[in-house]
């Protein structure tokens, strides 16, 4: 696979366990679609290692920069290197965008994004794309986290939903013991009762990303709600 050089521009602590990494694309045009992921190659102790990460930025006519949001992992060598040792100015190799779980405006004008934990990352690219480029599409983002302080992009999501009438955000925390702030709407799991309470449109296009068990459960619930199987999208790893 051909790769492209990407120079690390900045690293920002997004949550206690998630960092944002912004890269400058060097040497040639870079293409991807909202919802895609890439392979990132790093030389660690003299050995080439690879990690796959969802792209959180929205595609632009010319993609001069891309953003990744990566959750810390002591067991994944590339992730651990990025979190602990990567330096601003360092050059990595990346693949072009990969994966078929993507959104394009001709696919439909009602979109529901359901994220669990770090599963927000590919859905953030779709959310930003609809916000900035496709105002005729209505998008609802339902975001679940096990911890109040692990909602990545929370401020941006909330501000966007307040500013743009075609966007809606719903946050739920599954920690039943937590003291939750007012901007978190619910304190429960995303289950059948929860989704039916929201009265979501059966004819919308649904994008899911999160733990595999969560995806299977939500897919089954959506099917029971009458959603067409072809309207339920998620990466099957």
Automatic annotation (TrEMBL):
Its cofactor is FAD. CDD domains: FNR_like (cd00322). Gene3D superfamilies: Nucleotide-binding domain of ferredoxin-NADP reductase (FNR) module, Translation factors. InterPro entries: Cbr1-like_FAD-bd_dom, FAD-bd_FR_type, FNR_nucleotide-bd, MRET, OxRdtase_FAD/NAD-bd, Riboflavin_synthase-like_b-brl. Residues 1-104 form the FAD-binding FR-type domain. The keyword Flavoprotein applies. Pfam families: FAD_binding_6 (PF00970), NAD_binding_1 (PF00175). Coiled coil: none annotated. GO terms for molecular function: 2 iron, 2 sulfur cluster binding; flavin adenine dinucleotide binding; metal ion binding; oxidoreductase activity. Keywords: 2Fe-2S, FAD, Flavoprotein, Iron, Iron-sulfur, Metal-binding, Oxidoreductase. This is FAD-binding FR-type domain-containing protein.
């Amino acid at each position: 696979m051909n790769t492209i050089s990407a120079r690390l521009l900045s690293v920002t602590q997004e949550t206690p366990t998630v960092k944002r990494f912004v890269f400058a694309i060097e040497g040639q045009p870079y293409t991807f679609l909202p919802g895609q992921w890439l392979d990132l190659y790093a030389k660690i102790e003299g050995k080439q290692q690879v990690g796959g990460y969802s792209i959180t930025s929205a595609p632009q006519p010319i993609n001069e920069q891309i953003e990744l949001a990566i959750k810390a992992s002591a067991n994944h060598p590339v992730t651990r290197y990025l979190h602990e040792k990567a330096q601003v100015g360092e050059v990595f190799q990346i693949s072009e965008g990969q994966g078929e779980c993507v959104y394009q405006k001709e696919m439909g004008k009602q979109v529901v994004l359901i994220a669990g934990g770090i599963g927000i990352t590919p859905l953030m690219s779709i959310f930003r794309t609809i916000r900035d480029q496709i105002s005729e599409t209505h998008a609802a983002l339902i975001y679940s986290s096990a911890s109040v302080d692990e909602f990545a992009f929370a401020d941006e999501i909330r501000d966007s939903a307040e500013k743009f009438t075609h966007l809606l955000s719903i946050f739920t925390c599954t920690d039943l013991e937590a003291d939750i702030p007012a901007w978190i709407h619910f304190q429960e799991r995303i289950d059948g009762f929860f989704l039916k309470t929201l009265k979501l449109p059966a004819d919308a296009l649904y994008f899911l990303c999160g733990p595999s068990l969560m995806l299977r459960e939500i897919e089954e619930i959506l099917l029971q709600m009458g959603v067409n199987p072809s309207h339920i999208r998620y990466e099957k790893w």
